Amino acid sequence: MFARLMTSASLIAALALAPAERAEADAAEFIGGAIIGGVIGHALSQGNRNTTRGTTTTRVVRPGIPATQQGRETQLALNYFGFEAGTVDGQIGNGTRAAIERYQRAMGYPVNGREFAGYQFDYLMDAYYWGQNGGAQQSGLAGQPLLFAYRDSREGRTLPAGAPQPALPQAPATTVIVNPQPTAPAPGVLAAAPAQAAPNLFANAAPTASLANTCNGIMLQTSTNGGYVTLASLDDPDVALSEQFCVARTYAMAQGEQLMRAIAGLTQAQIGQQCGQFAQLFTAQIDQVSLMGPAQLLPQVTSVALGTGIPPADLVSTARVCLSVGYAQDDMRMAVGSVLALAAMGEAAQGELLGHHLREGFGTTTRPDLALQWYDASLSAVEQGAPAAFMPGQPERTQLVRAAVTRMQGGAALPTPVPASQPMPTPMPAPVPVPVPAQSNKL
C-alpha cells in the first residue's frame, strides 16, 4: 500500500515514486516496493505554484544483509570488468558472491565467494582506477581483456601502447570475510562444542567514524591551542584543512536550519524522511564519488537533477536543507548527495566539502588524488569571482585553504598577503653620522 505525505498544495508538492522493478543483483534477497514522498524545496517556494512530479525507483530490502561502501565499490568494479554483479546496492548477496567467484577463477585465485581476500579486492580496485583514468581509452580494451592487460603490465609483460603505467603491486592484506555463513557438519558427525572463552563486549563492534565527534575533538584542540590555524601560523596542512572542514560543516548546518524555519506543516522527522528520499535520487553518483573526479561525475548528477522536473531553485533549497540534516544526523551519504546536487546546480564552491570528505574518508573511501580535484575546482571558482560558500565575510579563508592544499601537494606555502589598506613599509634610510665636537679641557 502506498503512503502519501499530505500537505497544503501551497506548502509542498509530492514527488511520486513509481513502483520499482525487481532488483537484478541478489534477486533472491530483494522484494519489489515503492515509496512516495515530497521534496522540501517546494515548501520554500512561492505559494499556489503548479506542482511538478518526477519518477524514480527504490527497493525494500530484506533485513540481515547490510550495505557497505566496500560492497558498492566491489560491485561497480566487477560490473566494469564484465563479471556481472548486477545492481550496485552495496549488499553482498548470492549474486555478488557468484561474481566474486568468477573474478577469482579468471585471476587464478582460490575460488570462494564468501572469502574475498584483501589483496584480491585491492587488485580489483587498482585495475578499476587504472581503467577509469585512461587505461581503457588508451588501450582500446574493455571488460575482462582490460583486466588481463592490467595484470600483464603489473607482471612485466607488454603494456598496450600509450596506456598509463599502473601502480606497483601491494603486499597481500588480511582476508576479508564476505557475509560468512555457518557450515553444517557432515551427516553423522557431531559438531564440536565451542570452547569456553572470556566474554568480549566489543567483538562484534563495527566502528564507524563520526564527523560530529571528530569536529568536537578538533574544536576542543583548537581552543586549547589558542585559536584556528591562520596563513601566518600554517605549519600542518592537515590540521588547517580539518579545522576548515568543521567550520564549513557548522556554516552549512546553520544555513540549512535557517531555511527550515520557513517550512510549515512538516515535522523534523518528516523533513529527515524526505531528505532520505532526496539522497536516494543520487545513490549511483554517491557510490562513484570515490571513483571519479568532478569533470566526470557532475554531468551525471546534473542529468539526474534536471530529470526530476523540479525547478532548480527548489532543488538548491532542498539540497541546502538536506545537507544540514545530513550533518546533524551524521548521515554522510545524505550529506555527500546534497553537496553533489549543489555543485551540479551551479554552486561550484560547495565542492570544497567533497574535497574534505575524500581527504578524510567520511562517507567515501579516502582518495587524496580526487580530493585535490574537488579542492581545486571549488577554490578556482571562488578565485574567479563565484560567491564563497562558507564564511563569505572572510576572504582570507580561501587563501588559507588554497595554501594548505598546496602544502598537501608538496608545494611551498603561499606568501602571506598584505591587506590593501596597509601599504608595504618603506625601508628607513641609514642614519647619517653627526660629527661630535671635540671637548676642550679648558675651563
Mean of pLDDT = 73
Tertiary shape: globular
Helix/strand order, N-terminal first? EEEEHHEHHEHHHHHHHHHH
Give the end-to-end Cα distance, rounded to a whole number of Å. 120 Å
Instruction: Give the strand line-up of the largest sheet.
Output: 1-3
Largest sheet: 2 strands, antiparallel
Low-pLDDT residue intervals, each spanning 5 or more residues: 1-38, 46-64, 165-177, 179-183, 201-207, 413-443
Tell me the strand percentage band: under 5%
Radius of gyration: 28 Å
Secondary structure class reads: mainly alpha
> How many individual domains?
3
Q: How many β-strands, per DSSP?
A: 6
- Proportion in helices: 40-55%
Number of helices: 14
Task: Outline the structure in words.
With 443 residues, this protein is mainly alpha-helical. It is 45% helix and 4% strand. The strands form 3 sheets. The protein has a two-stranded antiparallel sheet. Strands 2-4 form a two-stranded antiparallel sheet. A two-stranded antiparallel sheet has the order 5-6. The chain is globular, with a radius of gyration of 28 Å.
